[in-house]
Amino acid sequence: MARLLRDPQSxxxxxxxxxxxxxxxxxxxxxxxxxxxxxxxxxxxxxxxxAK
Length: 52
Description:
mainly alpha; 2 helices; elongated
């Protein structure tokens, strides 16, 4: 591992991959929390175009 960190390009790629993995875990947790919060609730109105 120490040899990988001596090469700046390898350290850069390890950092990028680590950040992407952390972001993926964060977003998965965020979506799971949102789905849990709205589970069982029904929509009362039309939501056409709401995501725009």
